[in-house]
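Re: weekly structure request thread

Next one in the queue (324 aa):
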Amino acid sequence: MQFEKLFEIQKKFTERFFREKHDMSIEDVYSDQATKVKWNKEYILSLTKEVYEMLDELDWKMHHKKDDDDVRDNFLEEGVDVLKYLLGTFIINGFTAEEIFEKFVDKSRVVEAKFKQEKAIEEIKNNGKETVFIDIDGVLATWPNDYINFVNTKLNKSYTTLPELKGDVDKKLQYDLKSEYRLNGSKRNLGVIEGAKKFLKQLKQCDLNIVLLTARPYKKYFRIYSDTLEWLLKHELEYDCIIFDEEKEKYIINKFYNNGVKFIVEDQIDNAKKLANNGFKVYLRFNKGLYKDNIKQRDVEAMVKYTTIKVIKGHKEIIECQFA
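Done, posted below.
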């Protein structure tokens, strides 16, 4: 692989540079926080300077004319300098060629998805079809069960619900565990709720627009976006568009009010109430992991006082209600 060859060339030079000039190894750089910060600043500032030197090779000043042949070769050389400093920055942080390649592929998938998203939303609004909005966690993915199992494994506990976990675990530890869970790729390995794949396929067969919703904080944990896309791809879950928004109910209200929404599927009761209060038909999936042990589906039904909210246990009930 050509990229691996480039990486190895730069890695050998970087190792030699630190060994002969500074009597230290790459591991010495990234294992000490102060040293790592110092050298990251040096590399990034050098990289920035090379980027501006690329710009200087372009014929962009009105009073200055460059020879096209010189510009092309010089521009390429300055660009290679940028690449060398960029690779060097990755190397002094301990990244491997494989990690960089995998992240590049993931990021490319995310960029492609974001590029398509705005266009897809406009098409959905104007294609004359009705739209359904489906929450991911708790409706398609086995949340919070998988997260609870992760915490149980880490702490050697046996929690069965999120309220039980939150009431027993220190808040700082909860934050650390949630961060670890989000950063270690667990979102790629979430289970799929029984019947979810068939449900989406049936909706597609009914010629509906399928918009998936998630409040997953991808702006803070960048990999969440690519992990989500990978999970959807791996399990062959059908959809037309995916919306990441930490206030997803507001997104629907602001963007799709009176715009052909057939129904919405949620598992969070507060979100369901907000949507119902704005006239949307909502199916609220009873997600036992979100409630205390003694809460039953009938108890949730008693909490819901909107005629436009129907509490359901499985996806089959939605199909029976809507298309029977």
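The first strand starts at residue 131 and ends at 135. The chain has two domains: 2-95, 106-323.
Next request, please.
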